[in-house]
Amino acid sequence: MNRLRGPGFILRVCGALLVLLGVVHLVATPHIPALLDGMRSDADYGLVRGATLLNHVMTGLLLFPVGISTWLASSPANLPQPFARKILVMNSLAMLCAPLCILLFMGDVNYLRAPLFLTGVCLATLLPVVMLGVAWHIRRVDAL
After folding, report:
1. How far is CA 112 from the centre of its chain?
2. Measuring CA to CA, which residue among 46, 58, 70, 75 is closest to residue 22?
3. Whether residue 44 has pLDDT greater than 70
4. Which residues, 6+ apart, have CB-to-CB distance to 97 below 8 Å?
5. Distance between CA atoms of 108 and 90, rounded to whole angstroms?
6. How far is it, in rounded angstroms, from Cα 7 to Cα 142?
7. Taking 60 as the threshold, does the pLDDT of residue 61 lie above it?
């Protein structure tokens, strides 16, 4: 059990940071309408504003269960269990989709000048990589 204390702590921090990423997402949401002010017509603005705000809020809200389940799966009581490791790997793989989607769909690197956006992208990239690395390490430790 002691051999899992360090990895478990790292994973719990990742879970807490995923929840923080959800908070960052929700805090950034009110800034979106100002970013969309340059739309060509009021009809375009109304359509894009609603869809963008919905996307942002839903992503922020969905980060909470991913972070909380990561936190719970990495607790000392759960981490040795196979189901917990499966949850951690699936959460990591799901979160790896975020930076990939950002690269594929955002298109404009000027977004990275916004501090909240840059913070979110960095967290969304770093956390799943760390989580997968720790999950791989735990699997190796158990194999020994």
Report:
1. 17
2. 58
3. yes
4. none
5. 29
6. 12
7. yes
| CA atoms of 11 and 127, how far apart (whole Å) | 9
Number of H helices, E strands in the chain: 5, 0
CA neighbor of 22 nearest in space, from 93, 73, 70, 75: 70
pLDDT of res. 140: 67
Question: What is the spatial distance between Cα 86 and Cα 78, in angstroms, rounded to a whole number?
Answer: 11
| Per-residue pLDDT at 142 | 64
Nearest to 99 by CA among 74, 73, 132, 70: 132
Burial of 139 (0-12, 13-18, 19+ CB in 10 A): exposed
For residue range 109-138, list pLDDT tens digits in order. 777 787 877 888 888 899 999 999 998 888
Cα–Cα dist 44/42, whole Å:
5
Higher pLDDT, 1 or 45: 45
DSSP-assigned states of every residue in 46-82: HHHHHHHHHHHHHHHHHHHHHHHHHHHHTSTTTTTSH
94 Cβ contact partners less than 8 Å away, ≥ 6 residues apart: 66, 128
At 83-103, the pLDDT tens digits run 998 999 999 999 999 888 888
